[in-house]
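// run 5 | inverse folding | seed 20
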């Protein structure tokens, strides 16, 4: 576990969610992690999606083979107070292209075990992840959480633990807007007690093209929807960077590498580079490993 050089620095914890699956949530997490790492940040990815796609993409080992994974992160009482037990869950067995990145793997049993355990044994079941990540904020430059596409106890914990969040919106269809509305309403209901300082970074348009009229119209209608609902006034709205569509994204996931390694000059590679630069500046993210 790489400690930051500045002990006073507490890293941002960025959660990426949408209730709708297939909108580029995991793609965003893994490629942002790779870009942050390339720019000299010590990065921790926490995979709380039972599908474990981020774990499979980043990690060199099948996540279901790990004896220590995100189940212990939520359910082992020792990880709530002991940094050594937390550190034992963090894997550095990553694929090429994920330099300076480590992760806590998920497992297909995560939702079942965590839900059963926390509802019985926790007095504050929505804040177990928050307690653990508080211990890690001075050990990394940025923490990314890949969330499940469901309004579950896992999602509630991620919302409570994060300092910031973004929501990918796939403009190639109109379905992800419904997921946005449901999720934003859920967050607005849950955070006043568990995480009142949570900051909405904005919606991230994915598979988007300004040259396609239908997609442009969806983006514009989404802007109007955000203004109308105004659930997080004064912050967020649509992020100034959007992600293009490319077949290379799927190829990179098959090869288990960042899009930059698959296609260095691809538009999506530049998009994630620009998004990382925007977040580095906006959130004053430390680059403790930068040469």
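// decoded
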């Amino acid at each position: 576990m790489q400690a930051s050089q500045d002990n006073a620095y507490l890293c941002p914890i960025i959660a990426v969610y949408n209730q709708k699956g297939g909108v580029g949530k995991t793609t965003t997490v893994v490629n942002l992690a790779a870009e942050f790492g390339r720019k000299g940040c010590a990065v921790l990815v926490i995979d709380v999606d039972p599908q474990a796609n981020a774990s499979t993409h980043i990690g060199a080992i099948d996540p279901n083979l790990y004896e220590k994974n995100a189940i212990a992160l939520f359910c082992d009482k020792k990880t709530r107070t002991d940094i050594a037990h937390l550190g034992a869950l963090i894997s550095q067995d990553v694929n090429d292209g994920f330099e300076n990145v480590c992760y806590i793997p998920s497992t297909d049993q995560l939702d079942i075990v965590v839900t059963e355990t926390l509802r019985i044994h926790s007095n504050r079941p929505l804040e177990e992840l928050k307690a653990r990540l508080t211990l890690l904020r001075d050990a990394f430059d940025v923490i990314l959480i890949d969330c499940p596409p469901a309004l579950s106890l896992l999602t509630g914990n991620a919302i409570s633990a994060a300092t910031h969040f973004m929501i990918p919106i796939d403009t190639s269809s109109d379905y992800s807007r419904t997921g946005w509305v449901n999720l934003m309403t859920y967050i607005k209901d849950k955070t006043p007690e568990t995480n009142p300082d949570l900051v909405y970074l904005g919606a991230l348009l994915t598979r988007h093209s300004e040259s396609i009229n239908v997609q442009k119209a969806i983006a514009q209608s989404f802007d109007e929807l955000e203004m109308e609902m105004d659930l997080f006034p004064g912050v967020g709205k649509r992020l100034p960077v959007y992600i293009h569509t490319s077949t290379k994204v799927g190829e990179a996931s098959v090869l288990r590498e960042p899009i930059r390694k698959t296609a260095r000059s691809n538009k999506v590679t530049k998009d994630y580079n620009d998004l990382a630069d925007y977040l580095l500046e906006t959130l004053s993210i430390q680059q403790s490993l930068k040469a």
